[in-house]
């Protein structure tokens, strides 16, 4: 596994840590045998991100996008993964793609802590405007 955001990891309580660790390990075991098992990819991406393993979560979000390129939520989650590793340009481009695919949850986008690194970028404000159309 890659680097871990210890702040995010430390913010989880013991039960949450155990839960996400179990889910991630279970999903990764499945993915060792079936690298494109959709539900295992979703579980791995989500749990690894929750545990603070952003680079690892990004890898699985990219695979999900390969499988369902026209899915707005999968594309949004990929944008979040890029934002978490401070890849601003890819995060904003992917977020725009998610909006074009139909992701319009303006309120969630403004409050989503995964997008914190984008909030001061004027391009993010312009993308938020697209969610009102």
Q: Give the biggest sheet.
A: none
Span between termini: 40 Å
Number of helices: 8
Shape: globular
Low-confidence stretches: none
Strand content: under 5%
Structural Rg: 15 Å
- Helix-strand string: HHHHHHHH
Number of strands: 0
The structural class is: mainly alpha
- Mean residue pLDDT: 94
Structure description:
This protein is mostly helical and 133 residues long. It contains 8 helices and no strands. Helix 5 (72-84) packs antiparallel against helix 6. It is globular, with a radius of gyration of 15 Å. The mean pLDDT is 94.
Question: Gist?
Answer:
This protein has 133 residues and is mainly α. The protein has helices at residues 6-10, 14-33, 38-50, 54-67, 72-84, 88-100, 106-111, 122-130. The longest helix is centred in the first third of the chain and has 20 residues, at 14-33.
Topology of this structure?
Layout: H1 6-10, H2 14-33, H3 38-50, H4 54-67, H5 72-84, H6 88-100, H7 106-111, H8 122-130
Which structural traits does this protein have?
single chain, 133 residues, mainly alpha, 8 helices
